[in-house]
Amino acid sequence: MTDWSTLREEACRVLQCPDPAEKARLSVEIAQAWRGGEFAETGDAHPPERPARPDHPELRPPRDMPRRRVNSPTGRIAFIHAIAHIELNAIDLAWDLIARFGAPDMPKKFFDDWVDVARDEARHFSLLAGYLEAHGAAYGDLPAHDGLWEAAAATTDDILARLALVPLVLEARGLDTTPMAMEKLTAAGDEKAVGILSVIAREEVAHVAAGVRWFEEICRYRKLDPVETFQSLVRSRFKGELKPPFAKAARDAAGFTPEYYEPLSAGSG
Predict the structure, then answer these.
(1) Is the pLDDT of residue 268 over 70?
(2) CB under 8 Å to 81, separation ≥6 — which residues?
(3) Across the chain, what does the average pLDDT equal?
(4) Does the pLDDT of residue 1 top 70, yes or no?
(5) pLDDT class of 147 with cuts at 50, 70, 90
């Protein structure tokens, strides 16, 4: 049996691991041990400013990334590579939330929820990396953007800001865009990619739900109105507007109701 330290120290171990496949493997192993009761102390931690990364992919500003069209094999590889990069960042974002904000007085359910998210994101990355390998490619072969971690870097001071920008803006955006991507991949005849995205789409609802749950819980603790606080944080910390159309059914399933986001949408006045 592995000699585990504390959960927040294990979270930092994942953050400090530069190899993507090992990062994913460690995430699943730690999650299984935590959920299986092999260790229970949350402990303390000092997370790195940025997670460790391999030499590749080259990171570019989002505006410098080419559009990825899925109607060709090379376009689908580029698209799956981009999603793999998002999922790799999502692994680190879940562990960083635990390491940075998982104070000892947080309920165990907080840690359970974000450990589960980290485990899911690790599986998603592994599925996508497997797709790339099956098509003669690998994660790191193509450039990627650093927008997700830029959002994390801008929210290291407050868990409400982190929850607002990451699960409730950026991950919720995935709920909106994935169905259209699946339609295009279906039209292209890529059933393998559609199957992977269907798993991701289903499980991301639970991730956004965790974001809503803890955003509202912390707002209650601080005696803040959740809707007003979310809108204030997005207006002050998010660059740009929220883009419709919104996947209302998926957002509703996550408990993320339109009163939160519709007033912030492009064209809302």
Answers:
(1) no
(2) 57, 128, 132, 137, 139, 141, 142, 144
(3) 93
(4) no
(5) confident
Looking at residue 267, its pLDDT comes to 63
DSSP string, 87-135: HHHHHHHHHHHHHHH--TTS-HHHHHHHHHHHHHHHHHHHHHHHHHHHT
Rounded Cα distance, 151 and 146, in Å: 9
DSSP calls for the chain: ------HHHHHHHHHT---HHHHHHHHHHHHHHHHTTS----------SS----S-SPEE-GGGSPP--TTSHHHHHHHHHHHHHHHHHHHHHHHHHHHHH--TTS-HHHHHHHHHHHHHHHHHHHHHHHHHHHTT--TTSS-EE-HHHHHHHTTTT-HHHHHHHIIIIIIHHHHHHHHHHHHHHHHTT-HHHHHHHHHHHHHHHHHHHHHHHHHHHHHHHHT--HHHHHHHHHHHH-SS-BPSPP-HHHHHHTT--HHHHGGGBTT--
- Both tokens of residue 89? 């960042």
**pLDDT tens per residue across span 4-34:** 999 999 999 999 999 999 999 999 999 999 9
Taken as a whole, the chain contains a residue count of 269
Place of tokens 């960083």: 96
Sequence ranges of the domains in the chain: 7-36+64-264
Other beta carbons within 10 angstroms of residue 77's beta carbon come to 20
